[in-house]
Amino acid sequence: MADTFFRALASIALELSADEDETWLPKPQSAAMAVAVDRLLENLESDTDFSTIAEAARLSERTLARRFEAELGMSFRDFRHRARMVKGKELLLSRRNAVTEVGLACGFESTSSFIKAFRAFTGMTPRQYRVWKCG
């Protein structure tokens, strides 16, 4: 009986792990990085200059770049891209916004650039993602 239970549990765990969730963002460890991440997330719709974020965090650009790698496990550019994709997913699931509006709210200059980036990130277009998740 226990053997059957654990086989079923292993099967479910394998199934869940196969569907990788790309909606997480790493959390900063230090106060300075928390300031940098907050400033970035508050301004995802614009291309906030890296130097502006470094200044807000009271770090040099070089130190901030190293902290992104050390604390978040990715570069500033990769973190911003991931944050934009996570925000895009959230906005698409709300079903209130057109794909064009979602792309602009996430900092993309055109619908086509948003669709291309979203497809590369999720393997499907924003419209396909919305249908898949919302029906």
Provide structural commentary.
This protein folds into two domains: 27-73; 78-135, Homeodomain-like (Arc Repressor Mutant, subunit A). It contains eight helices and no strands. It is 71% helix and 0% strand. Helix 2 (31-42) crosses helix 3, helix 5 packs across helix 8 (126-134) and helix 6 packs across helix 7. By secondary structure, the chain is mostly helical. It starts with a helix and ends with a helix. 20% of the residues are buried. The radius of gyration is 18 Å and the shape is flat.
Largest sheet: none
Query: How much helicity do the residues have?
Result: over 70%
DSSP, total strands? 0
The domain count comes to 2
The CATH class of the largest domain is identified as: Mainly Alpha
Secondary-structure arrangement, i.e. CATH architecture of the largest domain: Orthogonal Bundle
Oligomer: single chain
- Low-pLDDT parts are none
> What fold name stands as the CATH topology of the largest domain?
Arc Repressor Mutant, subunit A
CATH homologous superfamily name of the largest domain?
Answer: Homeodomain-like
Strand content: under 5%
What is the helix tally? 8
Structural class: mainly alpha
Could you report the average pLDDT, rounded to the nearest whole number?
90
